[in-house]
Specification:
- This protein has 14 helices and 17 strands.
- With about 425 residues, it is of the alpha+beta class.
- Strand 13 and strand 14 form a beta hairpin.
- Helix 8 crosses helix 13.
- The radius of gyration is 27 Å and the shape is elongated.
- The model has no long low-confidence stretch (mean pLDDT about 95).
- The structure holds one RNA strand of 94 nucleotides.
Length: about 425
RNA sequence: GGAGAGAUGGCCGAGUCGGUCGAAGGCGCUCCCCUGCUAAGGGAGUAUGGGGUCAAAAACUCCAUCGAGGGUUCGAAUCCCUCUCUCUCCGCCA
């Protein structure tokens, strides 16, 4: 949520900033609504004040044993006027909330201009793209050759965009998860958390998935729950309605969960393989920090995600998303894109965002310096990493001519000492 | 699933027959005093959100909030209804 005072007092400035991301704010409608709000609120509060004064006078008179009937005369009329004023105010506020809840975050000053993916800016690159003396296979061919990937079985069990992993591949995915969790907890100072894989409306509103993006979610029929599209939702919501002591911050959480996405808008895209699934594993990094620390924390968190790729020896590049390509709640986002030899292109494997106070305001997540008023915290998160896509990257980058796949050194310990998955293709 | 108890400020906890209760008391925190320092002690202050005067700060003032939502009433933390959550016992269960 954008600071409502900023929105009220400087709507044209907000409109200018949101225009950077291609969002059109109707300033005139906003001003009209604000004018109505002001009148309705003033009137309601004045009527409430006189009602309160009258009630107080009656109470005082009764306490002194005085006659009260004259004080109570004429009350009914006021009560009607108050009810009307309250109804008007409630409808204005509801309209305001709906409008405000639908506004995306204001892009940070240093976010590049641009309308879409093509305008994202490469910040840096790491690693060497592998040069194979043979034609590189993609992860589907490799996985099937290893008898570890069974998409047909998954289609039978559930449908398209699901996967069954077996044997070495199933273990490799588990190894990746363990490796990432250990790295972030041991070396990057994160606390591991385990959370529900379903979340309620309040939680999804807090992080920004609701009310606008419900079609991206799986809802549980007959229950007030949604399957989480990312651990960001439950983990960031740990901060909801909290007042932390400033000294407790920053909080750093790492969390492995499955993620569930309807991919409603992606029909026909990435239909082959593990790239875009209804269910995938992800290790997520979440930070709750003091406002002045969030820019630095964002760089650090991005570095923590990069460390995973570096330890695995996977080449990647860091992209600064342009204003038009950023997610709804983000003020600034870096995407990490890993190189996939199977398709000779870079694919998103992590998205690291600073939400500043946008989520915190929706969440009512605050921190207090002793003796001072609570202040909204800043929230950040990033994938560290998307495990399914990391599995794809390992298969494609570590493949050998016969269809076998070497195990990255960092994972050998997690694979019980195995150094290679052998293909029988 | 059955029976019962509960939800009050940053935390704990009191709220009498509905009225002067945004709420006693304690802890914590902030400032001051005292002591050579520390500990102990004394004093004062300390909920959150929103509105108006005003574009902003200070100040003043008003409104809302005692789990959530409705209702009764001139007036609700207090009475009634619904819901949510927590706890205890019983049953069932990985």
């Amino acid at each position: 949520m954008i600071d409502p005072r900023f929105l009220r007092n400087q709507p044209q400035e907000v409109a200018r900033l949101l225009a950077r991301r291609g969002f059109c704010l109707d300033v005139e409608a906003l001003k009209a609504l604000e004018a109505r709000r002001k009148t309705a609120q003033k009137q309601t509060e004045d009527l409430q004040a006189s009602r309160n004064a009258r009630a107080k006078a009656i109470g005082g008179a009764k306490a002194r044993g005085e006659e009260v009937a004259t004080l109570m005369a004429g009350e009914e009329d006021d009560a009607k006027r108050l009810a009307l004023a309250q109804a008007e105010l409630a409808s204005v506020l509801a309209a305001w909330d709906e409008l405000a809840a639908g506004l995306p975050n204001i892009p940070a000053e240093d976010v590049p201009d641009g309308a879409g993916e093509a305008d994202n800016v490469e910040i840096r690159r790491w690693g060497q793209e592998p040069a194979f003396a043979f034609t590189a296979r993609d992860h589907v061919d490799l996985g099937e050759g290893l008898r570890g990937l069974d998409l047909a079985a998954a289609a039978k069990l559930a449908g398209s965009r699901f996967a069954v992993l077996r044997a070495g591949l199933a273990r490799l995915q588990r190894a990746l998860i363990q490796f990432m969790l250990d790295l972030h907890t041991r070396e990057h100072g994160y606390t591991e958390v385990y959370v529900p894989y379903m979340a309620n409306r309040d939680s999804l509103f807090g992080t920004g998935q609701l009310p606008k993006f419900s079609e991206d979610l799986f809802a549980i029929a007959g229950q007030p729950y949604f399957l989480i599209p990312t651990a960001e939702v439950p983990v960031t919501n740990l901060a909801r309605d909290m007042v932390y002591a400033r000294a407790e911050l920053p909080l750093r959480f790492v969390c492995h969960t499955p993620c569930f996405r309807s991919e409603a808008g992606a029909a026909g895209r990435d239909t082959r393989g593990l790239i875009r699934q209804h269910q995938f594993e992800k290790v997520e990094l979440v930070q709750i920090v003091a406002p002045e620390d969030s820019a630095r924390a964002h760089e650090e968190l991005t570095g923590h995600a990069e460390a995973v790729l570096q330890r695995l020896g996977l080449p990647y590049r860091v992209m600064a998303l342009c204003a038009g390509d950023m997610g709804f709640a983000s003020a600034k986002t870096y995407d990490l894109e890993v190189y996939l030899p199977g398709s000779s292109r870079y694919r998103e494997i992590s998205s690291c965002s600073n939400f500043r106070d946008f989520q915190a305001r929706r969440l009512n997540a605050r921190a207090r310096t002793p003796g001072q008023k609570p202040e909204l915290v800043h929230t950040l998160n990033g994938s560290g990493l998307a495990v399914g896509r990391t599995l794809v990257a390992v298969l494609e980058n570590y493949q050998e001519e016969d269809g076998g796949v070497r195990i990255p050194e960092a994972l050998v310990g997690y694979m019980g000492g195995e150094t290679r998955l052998a293909s029988d293709a």
